[in-house]
Write a structure and sequence with these properties.
By secondary structure, this protein is α/β, with parallel strands linked by helices. The chain has a single domain, classed as Rossmann fold (3-Layer(aba) Sandwich). The protein is built from nine helices and ten strands. The longest helix is centred in the N-terminal third of the chain and has 22 residues, at 2-23.
Length: 261
Amino acid sequence: MGSDAESRVEDGRERAQRAAERAVPTVEELRRRMAAIPGRGETAAERIPVAGELRREPLAVPPALAALLPEGGLVKGSVVAYSGASSLLAGLLASVTEDGGHAAVVGVPRLGLLAAVEMGAQLERLAVIADPGADPVEVAAVLLDGLDLVVLGLDGVAVPPARARVIAARARNRGATLVVANGGWNNPSLRLDTRIAGYAGLGAGRGRLRSVCLEVDVRGKAGPPSHGRIAMRATAGRVEWVPLGAPVSVSESTDARGAAS
C-alpha cells in the first residue's frame, strides 16, 4: 500500500509539472505561434517599414489620448517608455485589438482585463503572459515578431542600453510597437507619464466612483512636450476615455505664465 501511495504521489507531481510547462510557453513555442499568425510571418527584411509608412499608419489609441500624441497614435516600429496608471495601458490594448490588431501584455499581472474588455478589448486578439519567467525582455522580443503591440512590465528594472538598442531595432524592423512600463529604457521614441489626479463620485466615505482623472505628460524626440488631462468614465455600458480641456504644449503654458506675470 505504501508503494502504491508513493507511486500516486509521484504521478501527481509529474502531471503538475507537465501542466506547468504547458501553462508557461517556451521561447521556441512563442516563436512558432508568432509565425502562425496570418499576415505576420514575413521575414524581418520584408517587414522593414519606411519612414513615410510609419507616419501614415500609427496604432490606434483612445481618442482622448490621440490628441496629445505627436502622430495621433503610437508609431509602428517605435518604443514607448510608460509610467503611471495601468488603466491607460488597458486602454491602449483595447484600442489596438478593437481596431483589428493583435497585442500582448507581458509581466503585468495586475492589469485589469475586465476593464480592458469594458473599453472594447477583443480577448481573442490579446495574449497575456503574467509570469514570463527569468527573462521577460526576451519573451517580449519574440512576441514583437508576430504582434502589433507588446506591453512589457519591467517592475522597476533598467534594461542595459546595448540590449535596449537591439530590441528597439527588432521592433522597428518588424513594424511592431513596444511599450515598456515602469522601468528604465534608454532613448525611447516617446515617453508617456501618467498620474492619477482625482476621482469623481466619491464623498466622505460613501458614494459610487463615476470617473478617474489622469494627468498625462508626453515627451517625444522632436517637438515640444505636451500635457493634458483625460478621464475614464462609464458611458452607456462602456468605459471610455474622454478629454478634459484642450491639450497644452509645455512651451505654450510657459509663455502664458510669463504673459500673466
